[in-house]
Amino acid sequence: MEKKKVNSKNNKSRKKSQKKDYYVYECLSALIVTVILFAVSFLSLIGKDREYSENENRYLTTKPQFSWSSLMDGKFMDDAEAYLSDQFLLRDKLVSLRTGIDVFFGKREINDVYIGKKHFLYEKPSEYNEARLKKTTDAMNNIRARNPGINTYIAIAPNSTEIVSAYLPSNAPVPSQTEQIKKIYGSLNGFTPIDLCTPLKSTNNPQDLYYRTDHHWTSAAVDIAYVEIAKKMGLDPASYQYRNLAVTDSFRGTLASSSGIFSAQDTISIPTCPLDVMYRVTYVEEERVTTSVFDPQKLNSKSKYEVFFGGNYPEVVIESSSANDKVLMVVKDSYANSLIPLLIPHYKKIIIIDPRYYNGNIQDIIDTESVTDMLWLYNANTFLNDTSIAGKFS
Amino acid sequence: MVFSSATFLIVFLPLTMALYYLLGVVVTKSMAVKNLILLVASLIFYAWGEPVYIILMLLSIFFNFIVGKDMEQAKKMNKKKKARSLFIFAIIFNIGVLGFFKYANLFISTFAGITGLGLRPLNLPLPVGISFYTFQIMSYIIDLYNGNIKAQKKLFVFALYVSLFPQLIAGPIVKYKDISDQFMNRKENWGSYSKGMNRFIIGLSKKLILANTLGSIYASVQASGTANMSVLTAWIGIICYTLQIYFDFSGYSDMAIGLGGVFGFEFCENFNYPYIAVSITDFWRRWHMSLSSWFRDYVYIPLGGNRCKVPRVIFNLMVVWLLTGFWHGAAWNYVLWGVYYGILLILEKYILDNLVKRIPKILRWLVTMICVMIGWVLFSAPSIGEAFSYIGVMFGRSAAFADSTGSFLLTTNFALLLIGLACALPVYSFLIGLLSPKKRSRVILALTPLLFVLCIIFMISETYNPFLYFRF
Prior knowledge:
The complex is a heterodimer.
Chain A lengths: L1 H45 L5 E2 L4 E2 L8 H5 L2 H12 L4 H14 L4 E2 L2 E3 L5 E3 L6 H17 L4 E7 L2 H4 L13 H10 L5 E3 L2 H5 L17 H14 L11 E8 L2 H6 L6 E6 L7 E5 L4 E3 L24 E6 L6 E6 L7 H4 L5 E5 L8 H7 L4 E7 H6 L2 H6 L1
Parallel strand pairs in A: 6-7, 6-15, 13-14, 13-15
Antiparallel strand pairs in A: 1-2, 3-4, 4-5, 8-9, 10-11, 10-12, 12-14
Chain B lengths: L5 H23 L2 H19 L4 H23 L3 H36 L14 H16 L9 H9 L1 H4 L7 H9 L5 H34 L7 H32 L17 H7 L2 H12 L9 H19 L3 H19 L2 H6 L2 H20 L3 H11 L9 H21 L2 H8 L2 H26 L10
């Protein structure tokens, strides 16, 4: 009897002390949280503002300007929120911690980028939209029909999801671009199709064909595509012996930016020019003339792939000292930028049109420049999403 | 302003806490000063999100304060008629304001759609929190009229009741009778402060870490359209939404209750593990409890509740659930959602009651959850038509049971889904119960600060916004 009483007393006091123990720890953790709260607040307010974010490639929001009108329509509040989060201390570190946490817990898709193995990032494949594609191919067929005398070629390059499948995250939904491209070729009339999938797929090191951090293809892929395109277009690829020279090894491309994963860097190479060919590059709308298709200044910027042509422009004309008197028109996206340099020795004149920026009438150019050959050069993702061909040429 | 914003966490909260504790608790020790600081903070909090509509809230406060006083005066002088007309006037005013700002667009566009008249909707943006504070005000007016409470004599205390920032925007709907004492008589102490702070962090984590992440999955599923959706994808999507809405809403309630505790208030609970419910009735005893109790006290019981004949009870139930659906948003799918629950509850009450008791609990839980998830499809779909085609896919009207999109979603979000389920069901409390009390206290010491740091990481990384000008 007595013993029991003592026991229950002991139990009671133990429970009491346990409760107290819990209480103490709860207070302690609240104290730590309070300290973090005030420390973060204090540090944010005294911290020095950054103007530019390299990772995000944009100017950060600076201190919002107060005015009554901006207060009444809520703009001041939005700006203040953007300012506080843009200038938050260790912002870049926090973002990379977040992607680290996401990837650790199994996430393999961030902002339409697939996170592959061995630091390989993939652009999420575009949707195959029949209606949209039909508009594009109709417009292309129209142009073809209007110019029966011109040799017209189509080359759609597959993207890394199709070629570098070994490093894809498991289960990632990827459509067969080879099939899609075949279907597109089938709906084009009078175009000579150039199959880039087969040669790109049959290399031993497919992972070298695409940048790990960017959605473009590398010079290694361009080498293969060039041979294939040259053969189909009746050019002799062996007549132009070139080497690829690395110009940067610190390229972090669009896929790194989109996903916020900056763990890898890529190397960009450019081909050497043939010594016996001179050329002149004219940026027509910009009214600018240069003597090189390369813009070395872009190697100091974030968008290093723009070393080719300095980026995308509506109309670029290359006139060369080539003995040939053929005139080529290339209708293209940015994949072509790294391949066109290899075509220079084969043509007297190359007229490059980027429909996304070009607003003129290409029929006029075809007629006045007496175009002899026409190459449509795209990558699958851009082509599948494109609305500018249909929008501007139909 | 919302609790999960940088403005709130970096500027508003630390500033309010510092002022409240330094000026109110330490220096003046005056309840009036503390209340004044909270009132000013609350008005700034509201005006930050609604710089124009704050006038509407202030008008509502003035009007109801004065009517409340007059009504009490009339009652004291035994002018029953006057009290009654004041009461009706106040109810019409409050419902009118809510109806105009929340539902005018819906009624005008529906009316125009039916009649073919070219009426243009007003396109007034909905004042934040109006559904919540109007219901709080109405609890005051109704209880006052019924003689359950005394009128508040101080305008600024009444204003504080309506605008108190922790529960202003998303509840819980605190009834005046439950909290009136606390305005003049509350004690801030380490216990309520630390409990509140820990609770706030739990709520913040629910919102920032779980709800937002799960929400983005559902958003991507919904955006992909039902045309090519597999059964698997549809279920993953709706499970994500089911978890998201719980973490979002209960997280907000946790934050409100926690912040209340930080300033010495004690609010009513709003959620009690709704997803362990074994019947729809059970679910609604656990989900948004402050709203259900509001409708019970101020609509269902005044209509006669269940102390009438069966047809009348059914009518009462349908009225309550029609209104509950409508309260959630100005669109017909919310009404449908409310009616859906009304019908389920009536079925459960009168027809399935005996049958249900014979089914094993786990099966009852499963059926309840499927009903709840179907409810969430109705709730979240952009239109009733899309809701039905989504439900169709869930139950097999699809080309494929599983496709790579579905299995990719499942494998890459598996851990998140598991964590979500563990937090929505009382797994955490179960696991922590297995620990010795000493270890339990160590866990809380490590957990809350860690969660807070995670919250900051998630909050800031949400705003990651790369500019991709060369993305062509």
